[in-house]
Amino acid sequence: MANREETSPARKPTIAEQTPWIAEPSSDGFFRVVNAESIILAQKCVREEAQLFAAAPETLDACYLALEEIQQWDEVMGGSEDPRTQTAIDALKLAIAKAEGKSTGDE
Q: Is the pTM of this model over 0.85?
């Protein structure tokens, strides 16, 4: 069985591939997050915050992938009777909407 990347016409680059972010120490003792062009995206962060910010593109990619897979599986199965399936779909949609700066209705 061929994997999806081999059968897809032209796989578009993921967000993380287009916009890699890196957490690095700065001279003031804090951490900062920079992109591939060394543009500072966040500064004066503790290490954990910087690591979380730097993981954002990969995390968003993972949300898109998980949502697509769960929805496809749900469709193939004719709709899941397990309420956790819809809960997972809703949670992923909410996370994606927040990451994209869209209104989520819970502000």
A: no
